[in-house]
Amino acid sequence: MSATCPRHLAGLPRRVKEALLMSAEARTRQDAGGTVHTFANAPLMGYGIALRMSEIPKKISGSGRRRWGRWLIALSALALIVTGCRSVGYYKQAAAGQWQIFSKREEIVNVLRQPDTRPALREKLELILALRDYAERELKLKPDGHYTSYADLGRRYVVWNVYAAPEFSLEPKKWWYPVVGSLKYRGFFNEAEARAYGDQLTREGYDVCVGGVEAYSTLGFFKDPVLNTFIHHDEANLAELLFHELSHQRVFAKGDTDFNEAFATTAGEEGARRWMNSRGDTAARTRYEQELRRKDQFVALIMGARERLKEVYGEESAHGPRLIEKPGSEQLVATKRARKRAVIDQLQRDYEQLKAKWGGDTSYDRWFSRSLNNAQLNTVSTYYNMVPALTHLLARHDGDLEKFYAECKALAHLTKEQRSAELEKFEAPR
Fold first, then answer.
1. Residue 92: its pLDDT value, please?
2. What is the pLDDT of residues 61-98, one digit of tens each?
3. Is 145 in contact with 223 (CB distance < 8 Å)?
4. Helix axis angle, 416-423 to 257-279, nearest 10°
5. Residue 374 CB partners (closer than 8 Å, separation 6+)
6. Can you tell me whether residue 228 is helix, strand or coil?
7. How far is the C-alpha of 193 from the C-alpha of 160, rounded, in Å?
8. Residues 405 and 251: beta-carbon distance below 8 Å
9. Smallest Cα–Cα separation from 217: which of 154, 271, 282, 268?
């Protein structure tokens, strides 16, 4: 563990040293006993950096900028010692991307004071401040300095995630990062690099999905800013997104992406409902409820297709145990490929029927316009597979958020297997 030697850490801030030591230690535990210690959900967290945003000056120039630049370079080098030289390009782009966010932040109160701020942006930033206040007062979330600054990155998405799965399996490919542990995606701040990596995995035989991400939470390691990548949403969806990201700081289970995203989705949707009710805009509230119903039907469609694919692949499903097959011939591969294609084609037809029931609503046309595969179906499962159980858990507490958070926090302390077993007890979907 050469990254932990004092001579490598000389001159770095105390928190950076602690983070890198933690990173090396986390990898040691994982290699020895399979335990992954996950502390954040963002591409830069692969560095194992545990800096607080308050430790990075909001306006950096001159010698300060050079100093922080040298520290980021040192962090990159040390992260590579921990993770291996093959990751040099990945960590370099991650550092540059996160640095761009830091450098473009500006306090919202200052943006609002500027006379040339666009009226539409001014309105949304004022809404953000109101949502932060509501989140703390009514939803018992902890903004704690988050979303008080704004950054325009000049692009549509903040990061692009690469997801992958074998051709005949719904088990996602995972990547290991210092401190974060295993995640089901590889995040890039540059779209071209994400797509190039996706192409590489495709050549290796994986099903691949590359998707843009509008927002992510750093779980309190940094003070997350409002970004131009999500500020354009309407009121209800902006509220849901903000409450979703803030919820990650209230409850977080190390190493369990599915539980974390399902919890945040449940809390975000419930918070948005309550916000819309408090506004008294019946028409807007009705539109949002209709969106949620369509989303639930979309998710049910995808989950049904996943179950049928599990049967094709011989994987464990809700309807039976895993089927063990001997290594197959070319004929067996061709048969599985044809059966997989049949499931995907049926999914496309089912969507067209569902869309007709929606009166031609095209909200999910873009999703279905892609080349559907295992990796893309997994992106839906990650966010929504556990939502019905958690929604039922919230209802069991009569909507008491503090009790709901407390029980979810207790679940987060269980092992992943124990947590899944507990959630399976709740059956009532929305």
1. 77
2. 455 555 545 545 555 544 444 444 456 677 778 878 88
3. yes
4. 50
5. 165, 166, 167, 169, 170, 207, 309
6. coil
7. 9
8. yes
9. 268
Helix/strand/coil percent split, the chain, to 5: 60, 10, 35
Tokens of 18: 């602690």
Helix axes 416-423, 401-412, angle to 10 degrees: 140
Radius of gyration of the chain (CA): 22
Extract the tokens encoding 89: 């390009």
Tell me phi and psi for residue 186, to 5 degrees. Answer: -120, 120
Q: Record the tokens describing residue 191, joined without a space.
A: 């779209």
Least confident of 65-74, 248-257, 370-379, 394-403: 65-74
Pair 102, 57: CB distance under 8 Å: no
CB 276 within 8 A of CB 236: yes
Q: Tokens at residue 47, please?
A: 């560095």
Q: Which residue has the tokens 């893309």?
A: 376
Nearby residues of 147 by Cβ (< 8 Å), 6 or more positions away: 108, 128, 132, 224, 225, 226, 242, 246
DSSP output for 352-366: HHHHHHTTS--TTHH
Q: Six-digit token pair at 241?
A: 């997104």
Contact between 140 and 180 (Cβ < 8 Å): no
- pLDDT of the residue at 87: 67
What is 374-412 written as a DSSP string?
Answer: HHHHHHHHHHHTTHHHHHHHHHHTTT-HHHHHHHHHHHH
CA 226 to each of CA 44, 252, 274: distance values in angstroms, whole numbers, following the listed order: 17, 21, 22
- At residue 102, what is the residue type? F
Of 367, 235, 237, 381, the closest CA to residue 307 belongs to 381
